[in-house]
Design goal:
Blueprint (H helix, E strand, L loop, with lengths): L1 H5 L2 H21 E6 L3 H5 L6 E4 L17 E5 L5 H10 L3 E4 L7 H4 L2 H13 L3 E5 L11 H10 L3 E8 L2 E3 L7 E3 L3 E7 L11 H25 L9 H9 L8
Parallel strand pairs: 1-9, 2-5, 2-6, 3-4, 3-5
Antiparallel strand pairs: 6-9, 7-8
Helix pairs in contact: 2-4, 6-7, 7-8
């Protein structure tokens, strides 16, 4: 009964507002460094962008959005997606409901309709923010974000936002949430471009480049706050479990 109550619209609204309020507190009480220091000046002429992040490291990403950048995020239809969408709205970020998936699960999770909605938002000038990996396959870039860059012609930027004081969960994606009164780092990687005429090999090269870029920005962000990325070995562990070599296509 109690769990069902948490799924109601009223409860989701309340939880979302509480999460947004907490994130504002974390943002106000941490001293953030941005790297590169001029990144917002550099990317402004490129707008709109596609911002890529890892699952589990997404909670702090709203801190990276300047007020002048209209943005929208892909949010799961299930689980905590409802109050996450409310929290994003409170923080000035739109939400498209849907999740990445492979094979037959794409329709079930709303991936196809969400893809079209993201294209529409990008065309309207909104930056899209989404996780590059799909559920249960942590740190392995899925094909969806690469196809979004290809279809839209917009540049991809990997990003990491971390704090020195935080809670690291033992979840499949090693999710983290920052705590107040510490230091923070926002690190943005170089743009990755996917041509509209890109073939399968070019798309795979972009996918691997995004994996490398996300690894690099997370390693740097954690180094800036004197810590190590708790999810650094997740890709290798997953690929080993699947019997694949590191770097193999998902």
């Amino acid at each position: 009964m109690g769990f069902s109550i948490l799924k109601t619209r009223v409860a989701q609204e309340a939880l979302g507002r509480m999460l947004a309020g907490y994130l504002r507190l974390v943002q106000r009480t941490n001293r953030f460094v941005v790297e590169p220091a001029d990144i917002y000046v550099r990317v402004r002429p490129e707008l709109p962008l596609i911002i890529a992040m890892w699952h589990g490291q997404h909670i702090m990403i709203p801190f990276s959005r300047p007020d002048w950048m209209p943005a929208c995020s892909l949010v799961s239809r299930h689980g905590d997606g409802g109050f996450n969408a409310v929290a994003l709205r409170q923080l000035g970020i739109g939400a498209i409901r849907g999740s990445g998936a492979l094979g037959k699960k794409i329709r079930e999770k709303g991936g196809a309709s969400a893809f079209l909605a993201m294209l529409k938002r990008l065309k309207a000038g909104e930056t899209m923010v989404l996780t590059a990996d799909i559920p249960k396959r942590a740190r392995i870039v899925g094909p969806g974000i690469i196809q979004l860059a290809r279809a839209s012609g917009r540049p991809l930027h990997p990003i990491a936002v971390v704090t020195s004081r935080r809670i690291d969960f033992k979840s499949w994606d090693r999710a983290s949430i920052g705590l107040p009164f510490g230091r923070g780092a926002i690190v943005v990687g170089e743009a990755i471009h996917v041509a509209r005429e890109a073939d399968e090999a070019a798309c795979e090269a972009a996918r691997l480049a995004l994996e490398a870029g996300l690894d690099a920005v997370h390693a740097r962000a954690y180094a800036l706050v004197g810590a190590q990325d708790p999810g650094a070995g997740l890709r290798q562990a997953r690929l080993a479990a699947e019997g694949a070599a590191p770097g193999a296509a998902p």
